[in-house]
User: Fold this.
Amino acid sequence: MENYILSNGVAIPKIGLGTWHNTDEDTVEDTILNALKIGYTHIDTAAVYGNEKYIGDAIIKSGVPRENLFITSKVWKTEYGYQNTLRAFEKTISDLQVDYLDLYLIHWPCSPSKREDWAEINAETWHAIEDLYKAQKIKSIGVSNFWNHHLDALLNIANIPPMVNQIEHHPGYRQQEVVEYCRQNNILVEAWSPLGRGMVLHDPTLTKIAQKYNATVAQVCVAWCIQDGILPLPKSTQSDRLKSNIEGVSLTLAQEDIDTINDMNLGSSSGSYPDAVAF
Ligand code: A2P
Assistant:
């Protein structure tokens, strides 16, 4: 698997396996064991997904050496603040049964719509993550669902700037202002729900493009991200789909098809906007 190189020099595999909603112990184990056999080395989880322990068990069962894997997790909103974040991190690595993470993210920003001191809360959480990084317990650090005003405030206080921002990104919902901001600040964009939660997979425009390459729409979504320097995190529990999705990494789309996809407007498939989410 080819890598992107983060701003601190750390290599990150160009595609990762998303694991949100995969919470049943047996299903998690099957998914992870299948994915590792197929060639995934990058697994994305979060404390709030409730599957870190099962992912850790599956990794141990697989026998794949820890250093061959890239593991990401995220601190949830209820754990924000300096001490809470340190505690949340310890629980995450204990559940995953690892002694370091490759990437640790603030899962969602505390936002102006929620609290007046939102920027201070994000700063406290960030300083805890920076200290874990300095203590070499995390190889790279970042954020998720941060829009430009959240990033502005964070970059003002950061001693170590974030290396990654993981956002919703799929055909029809590019969040181009955030992507541009990240590019200008050397922050790698990761795409959650790069298949639009499966909702874009029957889109007629994408279906026509996929047919041209004898590919699946999911493969087109993966290739479209990668050709734009974005890292897709597609989710699947089914081994044939895990296999075909990862094969999308080697698909090359013509510029005219990339332009067509860039011009699509399907909106957010989740409806979860960082300043408006109910949680
Ligand atoms: P399943 O787990 O049954 O494969 P996203 O990553 O954008 O959130 O999309 C995830 C959804 O897309 C899941 O419901 C997943 O279901 C489905 N999915 C993933 N890969 C494929 C594929 N290649 N073909 C069809 N559906 C897929």
Notes: Residues 118-134 form the longest helix (17 residues). The mean pLDDT is 97.
